C-alpha cells in the first residue's frame, strides 16, 4: 500500500507536468464570444499566451506569434511568467519525488536525506499548484468581468477557452499530488522517529546491563579480598 501511494504520486505528478505544458502552449485562453444579432459565424479568434489564431469554418487555422510582449494585457503577461515557473517547479518536484521514494537508490541507506528530498518534492508540487491556479483564475476573472461590462463592445468580448479548464484541472492534480506526497512523508518520518526512539531505549538498556555487570564483578572482587585477609 505504501509503495502504491508513492507510485500514484509519481503518476499524478507526471500528469500535472503534462497539463501545465499543454495549458501554456495551447492558444485557447480566450476565444471569440458569439453574441449579438449576427448568428452566422465564419471566423473564430483564439488568443493564447504566445500567439493568436484565426479559425475559419472549423477547417483552416492560421496563427501568428505576438510581435511584442507589451501589446498583451497585464493578466496574460503575468500568466506567461507564472506558467513557465509552474512548468519548472513541476519538473523539479517530479524529479525530487522520484529520488525520494523508498525504492530509489538515491541517498543510499540514509533515510533522513531521502525523506527530506521527498518532502521538498511535495512542497514544490504545492507551489506549482499555486503558480498554475493564480494565472488561470486571473485570466478567467478578467474575461468574465469584460463580458458583463456594458461598456465593452460585443466584438471585444471573449469567452473562457479550453486552456483555462485544462489549467484548473491541472492545478487540482498538482494539489492532490502535493497532499499525497506530504502525507506519505509524515508517515515515513513518524516511523523513522520510532526507530530512533527504539534504538535509544536499546542503548540505554545495554548501558544499564553493562553497569550492573561491572558492579557485580567489583563486589565479587572485594569479597574475595576480604576472605583472603
From TrEMBL:
Topological type in the membrane: Multi-pass membrane protein
UniProt similarity note: Belongs to the claudin family.
Top-level taxon in the UniProt lineage: Eukaryota
Compartment(s): Cell junction, Tight junction; Cell membrane
Transmembrane segment boundaries: 78-97, 118-140, 160-185
Gene3D superfamilies: 1.20.140.150
Any one cellular-component term (Gene Ontology): bicellular tight junction
Keywords per UniProt: Cell junction, Cell membrane, Membrane, Tight junction, Transmembrane, Transmembrane helix
A GO term for molecular function: structural molecule activity
Organism: Pundamilia nyererei
Job description of the protein: Claudins function as major constituents of the tight junction complexes that regulate the permeability of epithelia.
Major localization listed first in the record, in broad terms: other
Protein name: Claudin
PROSITE patterns recorded: CLAUDIN
